[in-house]
Specification:
Elements (H helix, E strand, L loop, with lengths): L2 H19 L9 H12 L1 H18 L9 H22 L7 H29 L4 H7 L1 H29 L5
Helix pairs in contact: 1-2, 1-3, 2-3, 2-4, 2-7, 3-4, 4-5, 5-6, 5-7
Length: 174
């Protein structure tokens, strides 16, 4: 790996963990965006690793408290989002350019992936505490709406720009 690329990856990791630990409204977060972007730029495996590691660190240091036994479900969900970023880039192909359509597509992916993340974490909570999954999903619906809406807006507004910025810092031609 080039030194410049390692430096950018290190910064992305620090930014992701730093933002995750910053107090903010419940379910408004930037970790999904950063993990997806990192997967998109640097590959599915690194996006997955970043997602799982970030949620592991967050599980112990979160301003909302210790994640406890729900942490493995958070790690799997965020790793999936980072992985999806890498797969999305592969599906676009090598010759694809960054365009406004990418913002719309990434916003749609954000909505879907955030919903999947919320289902994974809520189902994990239900399983761990022997609760009906449907009851837990219904109880968390307002949090999921906030989570899905905020991620959809963030991806739709910023994905294309940040792909170009971070990609150029890492020496990627996009």
């Amino acid at each position: 790996m080039k030194c410049k690329r390692v430096a950018v990856l290190t910064v992305m990791s620090a930014v992701c963990v730093g933002i995750q630990l910053t107090p903010r409204p419940p379910n408004v977060e930037f970790t999904s965006f950063i993990c997806f972007l990192t997967g998109f730029l640097f590959g599915a495996s690194f996006g997955s690793l970043l997602g799982a590691l970030t949620m592991f660190i967050n599980g112990f240091l979160s301003p909302w408290g210790f994640a406890g036994i729900i942490m493995p479900f958070q790690m799997v969900g965020m790793a999936l989002i980072g992985f999806a970023g890498g797969i999305y880039r592969k599906l676009l192909g090598e010759g694809s350019s960054v365009s406004k359509a990418l913002n719309f597509e990434s916003a749609c992916l954000a909505a879907f992936l955030t919903l999947v993340y919320d289902i994974i974490t809520n189902a994990g909570y239900a399983i761990l505490f022997n609760l009906e999954i449907i009851i837990v999903l219904i109880a968390g619906v307002w949090f999921s709406i906030i989570h899905v809406a905020s991620n959809t807006i963030l991806f739709g507004a910023a994905f294309c720009r940040l792909v170009k910025i971070v990609g150029s810092l890492a020496g990627e031609n996009l």
